[in-house]
Amino acid sequence: MKIDVHTKEKEYSVILERGVLAKASQxxxxxxxxxxxxxxxxxxxxxxxxxxQFPQAETYIFPNGEGSKNFATLQEILKxxxxxxxxxxxxxxxxxxxxxxxxxxxxxxxxxxxxxxxNIPTTSLSQIDSSIGGKTAIDFNGIKNSVGAFWQPDLxxxxxxxxxxxxxxxxxxxxxxxxxxxxxxxxxxxAIFEKEDAEDHLEEIIARCLKIKxxxxxxxxxxxxxxxxxxxxxxxxxxxxAYFGMDGYLHGECVGLGMLTVLNDPMxxxxxxxxxxxxxxxxxxxxxxxxxxxxxxxxxxxxxxHISMVQVDTIGQGYxxxxxxxxxxxxxxx
Length: 334
Description:
The protein is α/β, with parallel strands linked by helices. The chain has two domains: 2-165, Rossmann fold (3-Layer(aba) Sandwich); 168-332, Dehydroquinate synthase-like - alpha domain (Dehydroquinate synthase-like, alpha domain). The protein has helices at 24-27, 44-53, 71-83, 98-110, 124-130, 168-184, 187-195, 202-219, 234-243, 251-262, 266-278, 289-296, 325-332, and strands spanning 2-6, 11-16, 34-39, 58-62, 91-96, 116-121, 135-140, 143-150, 155-158, 306-312, 318-324. It has a seven-stranded mixed β-sheet with strand order 1-2-9-6-5-3-4, sandwiched between helices. A two-stranded antiparallel ribbon has the order 7-8. A two-stranded antiparallel sheet has the order 10-11. Helix 6 runs parallel beside helix 10 and helix 9 packs across helix 10 (251-262). The longest helix is centred in the middle third of the chain and has 18 residues, at 202-219. The N and C termini lie far apart (48 Å).
């Protein structure tokens, strides 16, 4: 499946196809050098499969995990790019999950004021959500994604076959974002999670999510309006991530907790709870609500006296609403 994304900044294609990694060179035909960025959590077989197609390419691999999303790692990637004598005519390929995409994308955005960037997502989370849309960032001062840039890829190659090597927890972590997209935009997608075994419908789930993301990003590339709907569950979720040290709970797990926290409708909350439990995702956690509140005040969506939230009252119909800080406190039981 080929999905074309058209933004004001760039037009590019997303190729969703089993086995596409093995023939990446047939799609990547840009002139100049190739530079590959990955982390040591990506199975070596996938990185080697890419390297064999670009034997002249240099590769930089950094330690796996959210803890690598910082200025120090970014600086090392930029040093490696500079050492490889990359020019503005060259291309960086990211192969890995969301952290790799964030780091490589951000490096591409700022190296020589911007070079070509190709994303090959290898996790369910990155294939479903972060591989398109141009959001790149690092975590700073304990706050997730607080320093970054919008930098659209030039091509995305999503191969569902690589998900076979994912641990079950990581697979389900990414599916939490698909549940989110069903909640805000696609009732039929949410129904897959309620009525079917999601793992039997992975390709359909990824395709539906990519089409939703494409539609929203094309209308609102820089997140000034409709794209904010994709933050459903993220305002509380990012605070949970920061509170638990970012590696205590995975991103999708925190988004699931965030969705449950923000929902008003008890029946809808129970439906979501059952879906998350079916994916072996947490539906409650022990935390200090006062600390969660303080972390939320540092969120990008927080203003002086309110925080922008995404709410859902009917499956498939997400909407934006401002909560006063008093409402946030009340929801946290402070």
